[in-house]
User: Which sequence fits this backbone?
């Protein structure tokens, strides 16, 4: 756990803190080797052989950015935007909206597996 991520979350409204704590727990549940860091001055990122996800508290919701290069299936329809984005897609979580934890963990695990596969492939010659 990175204390800078703690500080970021602590600065959010209570309900957004709850969302961020749950997402944080779920990404570590997906793989305990996930590391935390801060990028772009204050944004919490969760990484393992590449970016997995990031958190961003906004005025009325929390964005969970999934760094899946639009390759991870979304059979539970939890992606809310960025469907055509080649870098990341997003799940926007609003106050009192439940998170589909099993679906999110499944997506995190798929992103991590893809990151490992890409890292293991090495540069093409």
Assistant:
């Amino acid at each position: 756990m990175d204390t800078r991520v703690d500080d970021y979350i602590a600065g959010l409204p209570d309900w957004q803190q709850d969302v961020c704590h749950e997402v944080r727990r779920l990404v570590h549940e997906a793989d305990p080797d996930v590391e935390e860091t801060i990028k772009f001055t204050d944004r919490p990122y969760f990484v393992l052989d590449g970016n997995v996800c990031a958190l961003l508290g906004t005025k009325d919701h929390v964005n969970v950015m999934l760094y899946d290069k639009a390759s991870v299936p979304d059979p539970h329809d939890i992606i809310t935007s960025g469907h055509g984005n080649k870098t990341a897609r997003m799940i926007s979580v609003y106050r009192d909206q439940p998170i589909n934890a099993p679906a999110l963990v499944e997506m995190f695990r798929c992103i991590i597996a893809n990151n490992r596969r890409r890292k293991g492939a090495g540069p093409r010659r």
